[in-house]
Amino acid sequence: MQKLLSTASVNGLKVTVVTRPDTDYKEKDRLSVQKKAQPLKDSGIDVAFKSKIHQKFAIIDQKIVWVWKY
User: Fold this and answer.
1) Count of structural domains within the chain
2) What pLDDT was estimated at residue 24?
3) What is the domain range of residue 50?
């Protein structure tokens, strides 16, 4: 998913990923969350953190929403 979102961002689309902040996770999982968010940020993707949500989704160019279901 990261590769597709990064490609969209590089091609000029505004991409925002919404997920829970690392503080919503157990201590042992927090570093993993940070490591997954940083490459997204580095590729120009906005990462928005919202506490206490279950949904994980990306908004592309304010028109398309991708929802992760796992």
Assistant:
1) 1
2) 92
3) 2-68
* Contacts (Cβ under 8 Å, ≥6 apart) of 6: 39, 40, 43, 44, 45
CA distances from 69 to 1, 11, 12, 54 (A): 12, 26, 26, 10
Contacts of 10 (CB under 8 A, 6+ apart): 43, 44
**pLDDT, tens only, 38-62:** 998 998 999 999 998 877 777 788 8
Nearest to 59 by CA among 20, 21, 15: 15
Give the helix/strand (H/E) hosting 1. Answer: none
Rounded-to-integer distance, Cα 36 and Cα 40, Å: 7
Q: What are phi and psi of 17, to 5 degrees?
A: -105, 130
